[in-house]
Amino acid sequence: MADNAQEPEIDLESMPGLVFVTGMSGAGRTEAMHVFEDLGYFCVDNLPASLIPSLVDLNGRPGEEGEHKRLAVVCDARNGGYFGALGDQLAALKEQGVDYRMLFLDADDEKLVSRYKSSRRRHPLCTDGTTIAQGIQRERQLLMSLRDAADFVINTTDMLPQKLRTTIRSLFGTGNERRGLSVTVYSFGFKHGAPLDADLVMDVRFLPNPYYDPDLRNLTGLDAPVRDFVMLREETIEFRKKWHELLDVVMPGYVAEGKQQLAIAVGCTGGQHRSVALAESTGDYLKTKGYRVSVAHRDLKLAERTR
Fold first, then answer.
1. What is the 3-state secondary structure of 12-52?
2. Measured on CA atoms in the order 85, 87, 89, 92, is the torsion positive or negative?
3. pTM for this structure?
4. Is 125 in a helix, a strand, or coil?
5. Mind listing the pLDDT tens digit for each residue in 136-170?
């Protein structure tokens, strides 16, 4: 019998309520914002430093009672003349007892130059005709004190995007990585159309069909007689073994790649009997492995039920 103990969810209480993201232009701030959004943070990009107190007050100071969202704020050299006030604003927050964490993203100069050339975007500090390399040096001087004060510094020189996502999640989203992947398992009937949004599609029409049993025809895979008819057959037992082995291979790969949403579609002829029972079974299995799973039945409303 499968172990129903689920691995713990991400520990929301231990996640910082306020995070500042800064660092070198081209070092991965946009990717970092996507990660914080997936972790449930309200993200503000390119916020002038002088507006930080207003944002914190509007949201409700993290740590105080009352409704507030976790905030992730990007402040960087794009702020121009407003950026110089960031250090003073952060010092003022500490004096007021506001707890926050600062993440600094960095990369080697050669890699930053290469990224800007490939993107064909203008560096924010190259407004007076200077080269990209000169703009990077200006930015380093501007950010030196922030880098020294940062709680976390990540060098993205040799990082692929999925590695950066995993690193940030490990720092700010404590708990089981699998809980960050939202999985939807749904049944469907091929005669009502193939699924359009599924990442994985499993066709179970090869299994014996309860539809041809008059006592089961008007029932569904949610009813015990149909479920037993489908699940207790030797063909299904062998299939489930192989199906679970496949899931055990591909699911960790999706987690490692940083995928946030996954749709698994299980289909039979009408979406009433076999696919419904096996979608429920698949959802139960993935839950025992620690994934966040919801189960739906796309075509069950079209089932041939007894009125």
1. HHHCCCEEEEEECCCCCHHHHHHHHHHCCCEEECCCCHHHH
2. negative
3. 0.58
4. coil
5. 888 888 888 888 888 999 999 998 888 888 888 88
